[in-house]
Amino acid sequence: MAKPLIVDDEWLDRIAGLLSDMEFGSLNIVVHEGQIVQVERTERKRYESGASRGAKVSAGSKHSPRALRESGPR
């Protein structure tokens, strides 16, 4: 028979903290013998495409947009 889950205020605070600043992702709570023993957070970062969404790169930036692969004959 399963043991009743024990969740104290410390775990509730931890879980709330992990969820509060997550925009996209999941939180997996691992329970062992009726107690939370681990929390796994997987967060996704979503980026919109650059120029069409108003992304700006300054002229002196080290990270200016460039092609990852050269196209054309080799």
TrEMBL record:
Pfam families: DUF2292. It comes from the Bacteria. Residues 45-74 are annotated as: Disordered. InterPro entries: DUF2292. This is DUF2292 domain-containing protein.
